[in-house]
Amino acid sequence: MLKQLIITILASVFVLTVNAQSDSDVLMTVGDDQVTVGEFKYIYEKNNGDKADYSKASLDEYIDLYTKFKLKVAKARDMKLDTIVSLQKELDGYRTQLANSFLTDREVVDKLMNEIVERKKQDVRVSHILVKVNARGPDDLKEKAEKKLLNLKQQLAEGKTFEELAKQYSDDKNTKNKGGDLGFITASLPDGFYELENAMYNLDVNEVSDPIETKLGLHIVKITEKRKARGMMEVAHIFKKVDKGKKGNIKSAKKTIDSIYVALQAGANFEKLASENSDDKTTKNKGGVLPKFGIAVYDLGFENAAYRLKNEGDYTAPILTAVGYHIIKKVGTPAPQTFSEIKLQFKDKLVRYDRYESAQSQMIEKVKSTSKFREKKNVLAQFTKTLDDSFYSYKWQPSAALSDDMLLSFGPNQVESLKDFAAYAKKQTRLRSQFDKSKPLNESVAVIYSEFVKEKAFEHEQANLETKYPEFRSLMREYQEGILLFEATKINVWDKANTDTVGLYSFYEQNKSKYIYEEQATIGKYIVNTTDKKTVKKIMKCAKKHDIEKTLKRFNKNGVEMVEYSEIEVEPGSKELLGLNFKKKSISEPLYDESNKKSLFKKVVKISPSRRKSLKEARGYVVADYQDQLERKWITNLRKQYPVKINDSVYKALTK
User: Fold this and answer.
1) How far apart are CA 295 and CA 275, in angstroms?
2) How far apart are CA 293 and CA 548, in angstroms?
3) Angle, to 10 degrees, between the axis of helix 194-202 and the axis of helix 354-370?
4) Which of 140, 409, 433, 550 is most buried, judging by how many CB atoms fall within 10 Å of its CB?
5) How many Å is the Cα radius of gyration of the chain?
6) What is the pTM of this model?
C-alpha cells in the first residue's frame, strides 16, 4: 500500500503534458538522460502553483529536487531493475488502470463536456409532434409510429402547418393545443432525450427533423427560434398568493401588492417587506431570495420579467402569474459554469446517460475508420448457422472444430479470429441468457458481436495511447520512473537502514546526544464519584499529603469505589498541566460534573529529570535519521557516477 501511494504521488508530481513540452531545448543532462525546458517548466509550475515566480532561489531549489529524482532513476536502470518481471507486471497493471480512465476521459467524457459547454451558450425554441411508443415495445409499433411521422412531414411539404398537425396528431397533451410549442430550452436535456437535444442544436430555424426516438416515443421536431442563452439568474421576490376560487381574492391580492410596490418606491427595504408580507414561506425570511435558476423553470411571465431586469437591485412592477402576484428584484447574474464545474457535476452520472453511449459509439466508429478496420461478416454468418437454442443457455460450449479464420482486424497487429469471438461469447453467459429464445439467433449473435467489436476497439486504442497522446506517454514514463525510484531507494536506503545493525548502532553512538527525554512530570488524575464539596476537600487534603495507596485505602471502603486513579507522563507546556505548577505535589482546583455526579482534580506526583534515550527507545527516530544520512551519501556518490550538466544560457533565460 505504501509503495503504491508513493508511486502515485511521484507520478502526480512529475506528470508531463504535450503542451508543456513545446520547448525542446535541453536544460540539463543527468548522466545520459536529457531534461528539456518544456519538461522542467511544466513540473516546476505544477508543483509550485502561484509561487512559480521563476526567481533564481526558487529555480535553484526545484532543479536540485528534480536532479535527485533523475539520479536515482539512472541508478535504478543501471541496477537492471527495469528488467524485473514483477515490476514490469506492476507497471502493466498501472497502465491498464490509467488507460481505461484516460481514454474514457479524453474520447468520451471531455467531448461530451465540451459539447454541453458550447450548447449552453444558446437557447432554442422547439416545437414537436409526439407519437407515444414504449421504448421496449415491439419493433413493428415503432415502425408504425415512424411511418405516421414521415407522413406528417410529407403533409408539411405539401403546405400544412406544423401547428395544425401538432394540434391534430400529437400525443403530448401539454403542448398539442399550443401547436407543439415547448418554448425555449437549453442544454443539457435529461437522460433519454439526447437525440432531441442533438436535433435542437443541429437543425436550422424553421427546419423539421426526421423522426427522433426518445424515452417518450418518436417525435418530429421543428426549430422556431434561436437566441443567445439567457444563462442563470438570481432574484428575490415578494409574493401574494391568488386563490381564483375565492371571490374577491384577486382584487385583495392586487391591492396588497400595489401598496407594497408604492412602499418600495418610497424607499422601503425590500427584505423587510418580504419578511412581513410575502406568502412564499420558504423565502420570506431570506429576504425573498429564490434559488438560482435558468430558463423553463418558472412561469414564462415570471421568467421574462426577471431577465428584463438589468442591474442588481432593480425590481419590477407587480406581475401576475398562474399562482399570484410577484414583485421581482434582481440579486445577481451567476457566472456561467466552467468546464471543470460541468465535468464535476456530470462525470459520475454520464456513464448512465444515453449521451455517453452515443459518444462511446462515435469513438468506436472513429477508431474503426482510422485503424484500417476489416471484418468478415460471412465468417460470422457461417458460425451463426451452426448454432441452435442451446446458445441461450449457460451450458453452451463453442465447437472444438471452429476454425482460426480471421473475423476482424484493427490493422496488421491486432487480428481477432472466429475462435476468439466464440470464447468471448461463451463468457457472456448473462447476456446470452437475457435474450428471448424467440429472438432470431442472427440478431442475438449480432448484439454480442457488437460488444466484442467495442471491446477490441478499446483495446486497440489503449495499446496506441503512447503514440497518439504524448501526455499519456509522459505519464507512463513517470509511473515507470516512480516504480524504479521506489525500488532503488528501498534497496539502497530504507532496507539498509533497517538491516544494518552495526551501522545503525554506530550512527546512534555518534548522535546519541540528539535523542533525549525532556524533563517530565508524572500527573495523577483523581476522579471522585461525588460532587459533595466537603467530601472532595477531604480527599484532596489526604492526596496532597500521602501517596495514592493510602488515599485509596482510606476512601474506598466496603466495596464502594469513591476514588478512581490513573497516571500520565507529560512534558512542560502540556495542556494536562493547566492549573498545575511544574513541581512535585502541585495540586489543581477541583472540577465538578454535576450531571454525572463526579469531580476531578490532578496532582504532580513526581518530576523526572531529562535523560538520554536508549537505542531501543529511540529506534524509530534513529532509523529515520540514519536513512537521511544514507540518502545524502548515496546522492553524493550518484553525482560522481552520473555527472549533472546544466546549460547555463538556457537556465539563465528561465530566470526572471
Assistant:
1) 27
2) 69
3) 70
4) 409
5) 38
6) 0.61
Q: Which residues contact 488 (CB under 8 A, 6 or more apart)?
A: 72, 73, 75, 76, 79, 81
CATH number of this structure's domain 1-78+469-512+616-656: 1.10.4030
Closest CA to 376 of 418, 413, 411: 418
Long-range contacts of 254-260 (CB under 8 A, 24+ apart): 254/318, 254/325, 257/318, 257/325, 257/326, 257/327, 258/318, 260/318, 260/327
At 13, list the grid cell: 508530481
| Phi, psi (deg, nearest 5) at residue 239 | -120, 130
CB 234 within 8 A of CB 332: yes
Query: What is the 8-class DSSP label of residue 285?
Result: G
Please, are residues 74 and 31 in contact by the beta-carbon 8 Å criterion?
yes
All three cell numbers of 492, joined, read 539502497
What SS3 class is residue 293? Answer: strand
Distance CA 483, CA 477 (A): 10
Which amino acid is located at 654 in the chain?
Answer: L
Q: Write out pLDDT tens, residues 175-222.
A: 999 999 999 999 888 888 999 999 999 999 999 999 999 999 999 999
Q: Which residue has the cell 512542560?
A: 572
121-228: CATH architecture: Roll (3.10)
Listed in sequence order, the DSSP H helices in 79-160 are: 85-104, 110-119, 139-157
Over residues 11-15, the mean pLDDT reads 41
CATH annotation of 234-332 = 3.10.50.40
Domain boundaries, the chain: 1-78+469-512+616-656, 121-228, 234-332, 371-465, 516-612
Grid coordinates belonging to 426: 461463451
**What local confidence, expressed as pLDDT, does residue 5 receive?**
46
DSSP-derived letter for residue 493 is I
Q: DSSP letter string over 347-399? A: HHHHTTSHHHHHHHHHHHHHHHHHTTEEE-HHHHHHHHHT--GGGGSTT----
Pairing between strand 319-320 and 217-228? unpaired
Distance CA 511, CA 252 (A): 90
Q: Which amino acid is at 387?
A: L
**Measured CA distances, 313 to 260, 272, 289, 330, 333 (Å):** 16, 14, 12, 5, 12
Quickly state the pLDDT bin for 335 (edges 50, 70, 90): confident
Which residues are within 8 A (CB) of 309 and not within 5 positions of it... i.e. 6 or more apart? 235, 315, 316, 328, 329, 330
Contacts of 560 (CB under 8 A, 6+ apart): none
Residue 407 CB partners (closer than 8 Å, separation 6+): 375, 376, 379, 380, 416, 417, 418, 420, 421
Q: Matching CATH topology for 121-228 and 234-332?
A: yes
Tell me the β-bridge partners of 30. 33, 644
Q: What is the DSSP string of 467-486?
A: HH-HHHHHHHHHHHHHHHHH
